[in-house]
Amino acid sequence: MFNKSLFLALGLLAAFSQTAAAQDRYGDRPPVVVSPDLAAPWVIQLGGRPARPAVDPRQVAQPRVVYRQRRGIFDSRPVQPVAMRPAPIRSRLEPQWLPQIVRYDTQERPGTIVIDTNNRFLYLVMADGQARRYGVGVGKPGFEWAGVHKVTRKAEWPQWNPPSEMISREAAKGHYLPARMEGGPENPLGARALYLGSTLYRIHGTNAPWTIGSAVSSGCIRLRNEDVTDLYARVNVGTRVIVQ
Length: 244
Description:
By secondary structure, the chain is α+β, with helices and mostly antiparallel strands. The chain has helices at 2-25, 40-45, 164-172, 225-234; strands at residues 68-70, 73-75, 100-103, 113-116, 121-125, 130-135, 138-139, 147-156, 192-196, 202-204, 215-217, 221-222, 240-243. It has 4 helices and 13 strands. The protein starts with a helix and ends with a strand.
C-alpha cells in the first residue's frame, strides 16, 4: 500500500513539473517576425507592427538648398544633383562625318580648302599628301554651285541677314524669316563664318548639326559648330577655296 501511494505521488509530481516547465517555456511568447513586403492589415491583427523599411526616409539625402544672390534677389530653389539632371541631347553622326586626317593627293598648296559637294566633305590640304577632312552640309537640289574664291572675311558668332530672295521664297512656304538675327546658339550661321569672295556664300556653323552630310542649304557650306571653330582657327583671310 505504501509503495503504491509513493509511486502515485512521484507520478503526480513529475506531471506537475512538466506542466510548469511547459508554461514557463511559453510564458514570454516569441515575437512574430514578418517580411516587410507583406500587407500591413493582417500584421496588425497578429498584434505586431509593420516592419520598418531598411532605409529611414528621413535619412535619404534631399536636394541641397543653396542661396544664390542674383541681381539683389536671393534664389532658394533646390540645386538638382548632377546625377538627377537629364542628359543633354546630342546629335549623333556617322563616323565618316567627324573630323579626321586622311590621305589626299592634290596639286593644291597646303592651306587650301577643297570642298567635294558630291561626297559632302571639306578638305583642308596639309603637307605630305594628307588633308584634314570635315563632314559638311551642302546646297539642296537647285542650289548647287561650283567655283574658286578666297576667304575675304572671318566672323565669330556672325549675325544673319537673310537675302530678300530667301525671305520671299520662304514666305511663300509659310516660313517667315527675320530681316536680321543677332549671333548666338539659335542663329543658323552658328559659331563661325568664313565669307567667300563677294558672294553671299559662306562656310559656317549651324544650329542643326544633324543635317551634316545632307544637301539642305541654300548654297552655303555648313559644319558642326565645333568643327567650324577648329577650321576657323587654322584658316586666314586670303585662303584659296575650291568648291567642286
